[in-house]
Design goal:
It contains 2 helices and no strands. It is mainly α. The termini are far apart.
Length: 56
């Protein structure tokens, strides 16, 4: 069995997660799920708009 691309002990940056969400949104839109695509894009934007932990 292949090893996963990201191990469960690794941390994932918000930018990487947002990139994956945008990719999923593009696929959803191509498949005719425009509403789901819009929600995924909004989630990606929200994720990038949040301040990192430990900042004022």
């Amino acid at each position: 069995m292949d090893s996963p691309l990201i191990k469960s002990t690794d941390t994932v940056s918000p930018l990487l997660l947002a990139d994956r969400l945008i990719g999923l949104a593009e696929q959803a839109d191509r498949a005719g799920f425009g509403h789901a695509a819009s929600r995924l894009v909004r989630l990606a934007v929200q994720l990038c708009s949040e301040k990192p932990h430990g900042t004022a």
